[in-house]
What does this fold into?
Amino acid sequence: MADDVHPSPRTDTHFLPDAASAVADAARGLAMAHPADVGVVLDPLHLYARRKAPGRQVAIVSGGGAGHEPMHAGFLGPGGLDAACPGLVFTSPHHRQVHAAARGVAGPGGVLLVVKNYTGDVICFAIAAERLRAEGVPVETVLVDDDLATEGTPSDGDDDGGTASQRRGTAATVLVEKVLGAAADRGDDLASLAALGRDAAARARSLAVASRAQTSLATGQPAFELGLDELERGVGIHGERAASTTSRPPTRELVAGMVSELLTGLEAAGAGVDDEGVALLVNGLGGATSLELHALRALVGDLLAERGVRVATSLVGTFTAALDMRGFSLTLLALRPGWAELLAAPTATPSLPALPREEAPQVAERLDDASAPGSGDSSTGSPHGQDRDDAGAAVVAAWAQALGEAHDDLTRLDQLAGDGDFGDNVASGLTHAQRRGGTLSAAAGAFLDEVGGSSGPLLGLLLTELVPAVRRGDPSEVGPDVGAALRSGAQAVTRVGGAQVGDRTFLDALVPAADALDAGASLVDAARAAIEGAVGTAQLVGRRGRSRYLGDRALGAPDPGAAAVAALVVVLAQVLDGSPQARALPSPAAVASGTIRE
It folds into this structure.
């Protein structure tokens, strides 16, 4: 029987067939997913690499509590570990697991144990090492203690005379194991590997932050509570809280402080950064997205460059998780000569890649300087030419103000019927429009050229048709031209997107406005028709876009695109008509927010 029984587990908050056997099940699953690379022994539970480099004489063994995946089992194979021992979630493996794993993979040159600095891990690996030595197996141990947040904290009550490290072992273990795996593959002996590993551990520091705790397997609730504006700065990979909870600063400010603290910590450890530079690990704690982690990589790279620190290589992703904790850690390893090459050496493991060799990233501001805003390229405006006068810019400014005020409501409405991106998409289009000059022609080009999804190009088609029609003048003469433009815009939307009136799209606000103007009504009447059409979408079942997947679940709330277009027609009436009746219309922001009722 596998040694991973967890007391009083829950399965309703995690996708685990059986929480009591989750660790063994995951181990079996890893072996099933990588049958040529990974083997598993269920009692005592450990995993081993089925392949190794021919020159490797010393086996490398590590382990720790489950919940940190892919560390360590995902690092098995050439260029990585020979065996890994998973304990219960956030619990060290027992010494029998470590002994069996090491005994099974020991090479002619012995075994190197890589241990994260937690009391349980240290004790269990030490007992296993004693047993191995008694059996004649050469053993050395590398202790990883990189967590800067626990620098100078009490040492778990250990009576060590103050000589033992008090720092926890966290994500730097990934880089240490990568360096050791490559060195073992080239045939380094046990003493050399131990010295290398200890040196690498001494020259690495990490710091982690979180905005939400991991979900407890025992309770199904967050392990601790944080407010929306709070942050744990200095969390551990077992979900340990930081020494204090802080208010959440802007991300740039937060990361700048972390980078500064890490560099200071390396300097204090006698591992100041020199011309060799650093290896950077941006690690997710389980709940951070790849989008966030790579954006953080760019930010950290910029901050280090400002300080004159060379990033020789980097790794981005979730490698040392804390279940589903919403947070990330940064690790800096101050490199010595030759270490970058070890980090870049090839691997054949499920989850541990070779780090890239240093190379300047290819980042261009734009595809072609000729297409830059203001260069005269047609992509900066509408295919129908430039605005007739200042009326177009006034429409764009008023519409942008309205949608800005209604941004959160537009997002909420879109979350009810789709993916919640509509507010951000229209805000992006209008921001690009202002950068292009703020005219209606610029807005048409911005939505067509700069905004993805469906809303951007379709609104761009509508705005393109409006460019030649929007102008100052007698409303009775301008109105029919605007009506024809709205009709042409609706036809273009149907032609490209296939939507019809009644499909719960912005056509349900646009077409009634065009109908009213075609019938000789005023711009004010067209605005009222658009509002009525937008309000009516609350009773429609979506047949286009993402809302079509939801059936009647979106009933009761108007379509955000229809609300935004109704707000546009209201703005057109207020700018081009200007009568008391136009000024008496509901505010464009209220219309866009979806709060207007019939």
